[in-house]
Each structure stands twice: as C-alpha cells, then as structure tokens.
Design a protein that fits this description.
Low-confidence stretches: none
Oligomer: single chain
Order of helices and strands: HHHEEHEHHEHEEEHEEEEEHEHEEH
Number of strands: 15
Mean pLDDT: 85
Number of helices: 11
Shape: elongated
Length: about 300
C-alpha cells in the first residue's frame, strides 16, 4: 500500500504543479512528500520528475506512470470504498465538489445540511464558481454543471432538466412594447451572457411544432455572471434569457414576466459530472443519488 500511496502522491504533484501544494492537500510536510517521491523513484529505478525553478515536469517515464498509475490508484480507491460500504461501514472521507455559484447557492446549499445529517462520516468541501474548472487537475470528485456537456473525458449523470425562458420586467414591456414574434427581438434591448463559448448573442428559439428561429440580439449590457443580467432585467434594462430555476421566484412574484412564451430556447440539463473512473467512490455515488432524489423528475421551479 505504501507504493500505491506514493504513486497517488506523485499524481497529486502533477495535478497541483508543486510538491508543496500536493503536500498541503494531503496533510503532509513538504519534506516528507519529497522523501516519498525519492523513495518511489529509487524503487522504480527511474527519474519521474524534472525539477526547474518554476515548475516540475514529468519525464517520459513519469508520463507513463501518470497515465497507467492514475487508473490503478482510482480503481483501488473505489474498490476499497465499495468493500467498506458492503461491509456495513458508513460512507466516509472528504467529498470535494465544485458547482455554479448561482445554482449552488439557490438550490444545492440549502440541501447540504440534510445530506450531511444522513452521512455523518462524510466531510464536504464545496467550491462555488461560474468558471469551469479542471476536475482532475484541481482534485475535485464531482462538479454540478449547467447546460450541454462537451468534455468526453468526463462522465455525466443528469439530476434535473434545465428549461430556459425569455423574461423582462413589466415596466420594460410597458415602455417598449411586447414582442409578438422572435424577429421583434431585433428592435429590443437584450441582455447577453458571455460564457465559456463566447458571447451568446444568437438566441435559438423553438415554437413547439418543429419550427426553429435564430435571432442575433443586441443590447446595453453583457456579463459572464447571470446574476448581473437578472438584476438588470428586474430593473427594466431589457430582455434576458435565463434558466427557469434562476428566475422562477421572480416569475411567481410578478417581478418578471415571460416574453414570447410560445417560443422557448432549447432545454438542456443539469448534470453531476465526474472523472471517468472504473470505480466511482461511494462518497460520490451517495451524493449524486441524493441530488437525483431531491430534484426528481419535476423540480419545484417547474411549478
């Protein structure tokens, strides 16, 4: 097991980029981490890392160990967890999860105490950001991501549907008029999200009968944070495209109203995303199962 632990340490060094950072993440001293890496190199009879002033770089042998060793370490970790689980032991360890700040704050955060109460042996480390992070490099077990998945190296399980709507405040529509057709959006102030795929100013709308329209929109405000666009829409600055979970409360309260209700953007999904592993750790499985049960087939924001 010492050899597997040393390989796991080596992988963490590659993921974090330094021995010190890897040591901190594993509650080791940098000196002990260095000794263990030297022990691994001596046991294998090869140099695994090139050390420069700024960064550590794997040797060809180190790259091979990283490629084949990661699968080994993750498989053993998952197998050990499964054996503990089947033996009646409570799920334990630290689950590191990253998620969208807006969705996480509104819909995941209030549920976390209930999850922890059901699994007292678990610890949660929650990272909230609207910037997409590299799960393997940053050492996360799981991510909650909104929209289409585009990383073939990850495994995704849908926890809820993600319908989207066009919204505006009653004040804005009273001043500027109510669009009657998608083409009318060209004459309106539209609030544009700038995401990982660039400026999302081409709005695709479906009419429910197989028809599809794509409109290029313009407006006075763009942002990479949906909260900014929601705030602007509430204050009457224009029309915004939002996930229903984000604005359901505003729609129920009448602070926002749907625009072009017969023409909806394509529905996407809300997914629990994890690295592609042979064995998924029990701590990850129970959290995904919890979320799927919590949100079910019809989350409360649909009502």
């Amino acid at each position: 097991m010492d050899r597997i632990g040393d390989i796991a340490l080596f992988l963490r060094v590659l993921d974090t980029g330094s021995i010190s950072a890897a040591a901190r993440s594993l509650d080791l001293s940098p000196a002990l981490a260095s000794q263990r890496l030297k022990r691994l190199e001596d046991a294998l009879g090869v140099r695994l890392l090139h050390r420069t002033m700024r960064r550590l770089h794997p040797t060809p042998e180190g790259l091979r160990l990283a490629g084949e060793g990661r699968t080994l370490v993750e498989a053993l970790d998952g197998l050990a967890g499964s054996l503990r689980e089947s033996g009646g032991q409570a799920v334990g360890g630290t689950l590191r999860v990253t998620m969208s700040a807006s969705f996480g704050r509104q819909h995941i955060s209030p549920r976390l105490p209930r999850f922890l109460a059901a699994h007292p042996g678990l610890q949660l480390s929650v990272h909230m950001s609207d910037q997409q992070v590299d799960l393997v490099r940053e050492g996360f077990d799981l991510a909650i991501r909104i929209g289409d998945l585009d990383d073939s190296q990850l495994v995704g399980r849908q926890i809820a549907a993600n319908p989207r709507v066009l919204v505006a405040s009653p004040d804005y529509l009273a001043r500027r008029g109510i669009p009657a057709a998608p083409d009318d959006l060209a004459a309106h102030d539209c609030l544009v999200l700038v995401g990982s795929r660039g400026r999302q100013d081409r709005w695709q709308l479906l009419d429910g009968a197989g028809g599809e329209t794509t409109i290029t929109v313009t407006g006075p405000l763009e942002s990479n944070l949906g909260e900014v666009l929601r705030d602007a829409a509430l204050e009457g600055a224009g029309i915004a495209m939002h996930a229903l979970w984000h604005v359901a409360g505003d729609l129920r309260a009448g602070r926002l109203v749907r625009v072009l209700p017969g023409h909806a953007p394509p529905e996407t999904g809300i997914h629990a995303v994890m690295p592609d592993r042979i064995f998924v750790p029990p701590r990850t499985r129970v959290f995904v199962s919890f979320l799927q049960t919590e949100f079910g087939s019809t989350p409360h924001w649909h009502t």
